[in-house]
Amino acid sequence: MSPAQSSPAQAREAYDVVVVGAGFAGMYMLHRLRGLGFSARVYEQGGGVGGTWYWNRYPGARCDVESMQYSYSFSEELQQEWDWSERYAPQAEILKYANHVADRFDLRRDIQFDTRVERAVFDEQANAWSVKISDGKMVEAKFVVLATGCLSNARKPDIQGLDNFKGPVYHTGNWPHEPVDFAGLRVGLIGTGSSGIQSAPIIAEQARHLTVFQRTANFSIPARNAALTDEERNAFRNNYPEIRRFAREIARNGIHAEQPDRGALDDSEDARRAKYKARWDRGGLTFMSAYNNLGLDLAANDTAANYVRSKITEIVKDATTAKLLQPNSHPIGTKRICIDTDYFATFNRPNVSLVDIKTNPIEEITANAVRVAGTDHEVDALVLATGFDAMTGSVARIDIRGRGGRTLNQKWAEGPKTYLGLMSAGFPNLFIITGPGSPSVLSNMIVSIEQHVDWIADCLVHMRQQGLATMEAGGEAEDKWVAHVNEIAHGTLYPQANSWYMGANIPGKPRIFMPYIGGVGIYRRICDEVAAKGYEGFVMTRAEQPRRVVTG
Ligand code: N01
């Protein structure tokens, strides 16, 4: 395929590929496309690269995957040369890294910032997408790649009176670029997921008073963040080939770590406590890898959950507050586990209070207070750490129309349907990076992003070599994949939680477990086998022969 040409009649810009989003997925996609000789244009609604790390600038924001692993592996020079300063990189450093990558690989010249993709319509005659962007321009592309991110549509909650609040209201997922100073203010924080749990200790240090409004108590493990030493950095750098291979092929979640060899009930109580203590003391997400059945067996899960509850009791001095902070509505890990620095200890501060809004939901937000059970909790500023319309929210904001004019939102009205998370039947030449039906949010995102981008890049080369015009998910393969994703999810404890994995945080959103829980290694093998079998399950057509099945 040669770079697409614009027809003089339409005088539109035309590309082989339009990529939506310039986060880690969009940037790497652009880099691969260019290297393969495809013409590509990236549209990014933000004013810079970095996606998640561009928007989430709230106090305390940092990644909960260790920085030496939450980084691109595609360039040996990059991974050898970039110096991460801490075990968990703070947001500003990850954003700096994203900007460094953009400069280093000269990506910016093909990225248009401050521009949303508003509509994409598939033209069945031309076998191409007609894309409308927010400056009003139309562009054409043979392929569209959605690199829109899974947690990029920040959600303002429907709480009565929120718009009447007179003070500033911030959402963690859309934080101002200028510093926010809470000194001397009474701050109300709504939401106790990863964002709320990371920001509370920092806000508490600045504010006159912090009131945390908690609907669901969450499990959180200490980060034990620290500066990285040269020795630690070199331990990774010298072993990157093996560490990356392990993360891609062996670890379920794409993170190189010691793997469990037994279930929680296979150990004596003393041995189990010792193991949990070692993981707690080390800190981080690998707490959940202490045993191999924590996500599968409720009795096993209870042992880990009870350990964390006991730590909360140890840390929090006030017994009533400690009790309220103990999660009891879901098995540990079935909502994304949080990683914190001094979250529970924050409630020992005299200027912090906790309000239970599960028993008594917020009645209303007034001009200067949050009213719960008839009591007005006066605040000067509000922080909404209320999460995202996850996995599908950002895709749903684009008016995507496939064959027969059917919209993707119509097709996904009862839950997202994809084959391998990569494509959806009826929407030819439209790829999704880390979409629903792929491991994505259950994994180290960069591992999953690189795998998807490489798979899509190989696929486009295959199509070019074979002279193929379109590719799309076959209906039968898609149905089988959706059933498989559901079946394995329901063999675990995950669907027991009202989580954003299930769409449960958005009123009216279908309750479907969206990510693929089989693990990144197994998933990668499935994708590779599908490709090796001539893209089995996908339908491909040649130019001039619409809908002729070439494979699948
Ligand atoms: O969002 P969340 P998040 N009234 O959806 C509550 C990643 N991440 O931004 O649980 C009152 O988890 C809601 O309550 P409930 C990570 O994957 C990573 O914190 O629905 N409360 C919950 O407490 C994470 O999982 C990092 O009952 C309302 C909170 O708001 C994902 O992003 C850092 C409410 C939302 O929690 C999302 O995390 C940050 C309402 N109307 C995020 N609506 C790291 O790498 C919602 N809530 C460290």
UniProtKB/TrEMBL annotation:
<dbReference type="InterPro" id="IPR036188">
    <property type="entry name" value="FAD/NAD-bd_sf"/>
</dbReference>
<dbReference type="InterPro" id="IPR050775">
    <property type="entry name" value="FAD-binding_Monooxygenases"/>
</dbReference>
<comment type="similarity">
    <text>Belongs to the FAD-binding monooxygenase family.</text>
</comment>
<keyword id="KW-0274">FAD</keyword>
<dbReference type="GO" id="GO:0004497">
    <property type="term" value="F:monooxygenase activity"/>
</dbReference>
<keyword id="KW-0521">NADP</keyword>
<dbReference type="Pfam" id="PF13738">
    <property type="entry name" value="Pyr_redox_3"/>
</dbReference>
<keyword id="KW-0503">Monooxygenase</keyword>
<protein>
    <submittedName>
        <fullName>NAD(P)/FAD-dependent oxidoreductase</fullName>
    </submittedName>
</protein>
<keyword id="KW-0285">Flavoprotein</keyword>
<keyword id="KW-0560">Oxidoreductase</keyword>
